[in-house]
Amino acid sequence: MNNWAVISTWSMSYDGLVKAAELLKKDKSAGDAVENLLRKVESYPLYKSVGYGGLPNEDGVVQMDAAFMDGDTLAQGSVAAIENVKHAVSVARRLSLNKTNSFLVGEGATKYAMQNGFEMTNMLTERAKTIWQNKVKQQLQSDLHPYDGHDTVGAITLDRNGSLAAATSTSGLFMKKNGRIGDSPLSGSGFYADSHIGAATATGLGEDIMKGCLSYEIVRKMAEGKSPQEACDATVYPFCNDLKKRYGQVGEISLIALNKKGEWGVATNVEFPFCIAAKKQGPQILMANPGLHNNTKIEPISQAWLDDYQKQIKAPVK
Q: Which InterPro entries does the annotation name (predicted)?
């Protein structure tokens, strides 16, 4: 095989993707690479939608969801509404080794992490707390919708042995209801991986992504012979169009995919930056946008866009 590749959602995953690419070059496993990618994102305090510094729910508590899937064995592990755990994705990966009790939520997930030696910490940074306090004040002053951000980090890795792995991590909707869970930890919706075929992960409004089991649908279409890009386009755009007709609205939805050959694909109904690296393709950030004919327009990001992005995430909070 001797081929490797990695794809991940959002520009915030770039440093993690570089780390994953380095591991894959050194013949490390797809599982190790994807876990390390997500841990890098979870550790950075300025990313408001993942891990340490993630924005809290309406009660001011950071509750995280994460998942891991081994494409060789189809083993899966997930956590939801877990609290005070530095790396939710690592807990999910450990749970994937269990024959039963592989999906834990709330207090049970947090207790498991504590009992099994995972790093525990207060995930609510002062910066995130200030943002939450400001939003509470705004709600009291006007009828503002508290929703803000849902940028799940999702990633797929292919190692030199032909093994695929997928993982996700998110703090979910800002100001969400206590205990709210989106698509990210749910098999078939937020993620799916099969080393015989390919893998996909999702980011966006979980309540809508779950209506279509979109990650599994993309993998199923790849199994029928479609390329990752064809499978993404054929899944995301018809679903979004149909959901808008039947449900009256559709939230932001973006998916990435990678097949066993190392070919990748993306589809989205919003502007969506993602990261990619492969044996013959150095790490880079690309921008996807919905095309005019149920297809996806992909182009490199501009330096101006990247500079503005860095400025936004590092802007002081008052």
A: Ntn_hydrolases_N (IPR029055), Peptidase_T2 (IPR000246)
